[in-house]
From TrEMBL:
Protein's cellular compartments: Membrane
Keywords: Membrane, Transmembrane, Transmembrane helix
Signal peptide: none
GO MF annotation terms: potassium:proton antiporter activity; sodium:proton antiporter activity
Protein name per its UniProtKB record: Ca2+:H+ antiporter
Amino acid sequence: MEAKIRSYLAHWTVAVPIVAIAALVLTWGRDLPSPVVVVVALLLGGAVLAAVHHAEVVAHKVGEPFGSLVLAVAVTIIEVALIVTLMISGGEKTQSLARDTVFAAVMITCNGLLGISLLVGALRRHVAVFNAEGTGGAFATVATIATLSLVLPSFTTSRPGPQFSPAQLAFAAVASIALWGLFVTVQTRRHRDYFLPITTSGKVIDAEDHLEPPTKRDALISVGLLLVALVAVVGLAKGVSPSIESAVQNVGLPNGVVGVVIALLVLLPETIAAVRAAARDRIQTSLNLAIGSAMASIGLTIPAIALAMIWLPGPLLLGLGGTQMVLLALTVVVGTLTIVPGRANVLQGGVHLALLAAFLFLAASP
């Protein structure tokens, strides 16, 4: 028994979260020199990869589409924690951090994850096949929540600037979480079959045919290690965030780039999992991860930030600028045209990746 425990602890997906937590305890609240920042950043990346592994173990145990929800909610927890901690310590320059991070998450998931998943699937099998009914409904929900939360604040007149009044913010928060809850109900209960993977031959896959599901004990261990890895990611990311902010300022980039960096960091697990699923001809799983993450990022993050504003100082700037609105509108139009047929090739994947590249370029050079 003791040898088995040692063997289990020797596995990197177990060892890295434990080492990362130890590093978090040793570095919490301290000014870190550059060599230590590099080590912490490496441990942060390792903890993210370990979180991916354990989330996939849990996802395999519970099956689709519940598995995609596990990773989406886990990533959203990281995102909310990072935004709140940075807003507490950042002052006026972080008033738009929630908007920048959530918008970046939407663009990365609906263009980056979706595009690379379609590209990988189409390159391997000439065409990527998915269920247009489930994916289309999910994408419509993302477009609605994004418009309510990120576009309308630029046009309301109750408060100066791109912000909601308290009543408007409460409405947007309730509407966002209600739509997210309705989507989860549809995805996991009433129309679960709309979100199951479909192979290029048209076969619906309700379980992984070639892999034995993990035991209940292994799944519970992965749940615990997933939580440990998530705590490590949040804590270590907070530790290196001053270095990220300083680097952004030193090279003369806009403050909004910090939100892009946060979104890229927290969405790394989703990206890896989506690419792996696409390579196994599970395009629907990849799209569940991409669009589900976008929905969770808005539907859960905005209500959480709205609640946090009870004690956070300063206004919450949510409204997008003109350039960002154009990119969001183009993403919605292109995404709709991509999803409606239920089939995509390398062209659609390339178009979405081009939109992501445009977003990243304009974020750095507005």
